[in-house]
Design a protein that fits this description.
This protein folds into two domains: about 60 residues, Arc Repressor Mutant, subunit A, CATH 1.10.10; about 80 residues, Glutaredoxin (3-Layer(aba) Sandwich). About 50% of the residues lie in helices and about 10% in strands. The protein contains seven helices and four strands, in the order ααααβααβββα. The protein has a four-stranded mixed beta sheet, covered by helices on one side. A hairpin with a 2-residue loop joins strand 3 and strand 4.
């Protein structure tokens, strides 16, 4: 049994073997593996007696269930209208210029992936950025660079 298969089995033991367990199982895999590979989604489908298409459809629908490998630090910038009006384009530009990547890309050293997300739930404090599970509200282009530098130090 592979590590991923053992993880899936452990998650199913915890959450059950029914359709309602799909999201927590997928979230658990992403928490540990950082993304859902095709083989993983097929294994989850088999274990939960679901179609692979159903599992992939669920995984690809939700922003935080990555179906591609990502960097060790995932930067998500809110792309709602309220964050747009508060300067999210300048935030994205600062990150792209600093990391030399575009939205959807990962740095060559795999330290960072830059993504956008639909609402992060902090509209009153935009623009907002999420790095892994840490929220950074009311950010500026200058503050973004400081935050990225701190995460880069921790990732070495």
């Amino acid at each position: 049994m592979t590590n991923t298969e053992a993880l899936i089995h452990e998650l199913i033991e915890k959450h059950g073997k029914n359709r309602n367990a799909l999201m927590p199982v997928l979230q658990g895999v992403v928490a540990r593996e950082k993304f859902l590979s095709e083989d993983t989604m097929i294994a989850v489908a088999r274990e939960l007696d679901l179609s692979a298409a159903d599992v992939y459809g669920t995984a690809s629908f939700y922003t935080f269930l990555d179906t591609k490998p990502r960097g060790r630090n995932i930067i998500r910038v809110c792309k709602t209208i309220s964050c747009h009006m508060q300067g999210k384009e300048a935030i994205i530009r600062a990150i792209e210029d600093h990391l030399l990547i575009k939205v959807g890309e990962t740095t060559h050293d795999n330290k960072f992936t830059l993504l956008t997300a639909n609402c992060l739930g902090w509209c009153h404090k935009g623009p907002v950025m999420l790095v892994n599970d840490e929220v950074f509200p009311s950010i500026t282009p200058e503050k973004v660079i400081e935050i990225i530098e701190e995460f880069a130090k921790k990732t070495n």
